[in-house]
Amino acid sequence: MSGPIRHIVMWRLRGETAEERAAARSKVKSLFEGLRGRIDGLTNIEVGLDVSDVDYACDVVLVSEFADSAALKAYASHPEHLRVREELGDLRIGRFQVDYPIS
């Protein structure tokens, strides 16, 4: 697939208290926003924190855009991305993903 691609990931995070979940959300946001400008082909990155407080909502959403599917594939194994995943450890308890071409 050629052309730009949007990569959306949503997570549910570990945390027994509201404070623990808020700290987890902030950590995810900070780490992923730190990737801005560090990975070739990553053209845009946005991290949103849920404010709905409904029990079925995810805690965090990552919306990122890549120059093409090759750039997205390279991102998956990029050392900076792998560092973020390692720093997050087992903080994530649920993960959902959608990738689609941007027209």
UniProtKB/TrEMBL annotation:
* Boundaries of every Stress-response A/B barrel domain copy: 5-100
Tell me the superkingdom of the source: Bacteria
State a single Pfam family of this protein: Dabb
What InterPro entries would the database entry show?
Answer: Dabb, Dimeric_a/b-barrel
What protein name does the entry list?
Answer: Stress responsive protein
Organism annotation: Bradyrhizobium jicamae
Q: What is the lineage of its organism?
A: Bacteria, Pseudomonadati, Pseudomonadota, Alphaproteobacteria, Hyphomicrobiales
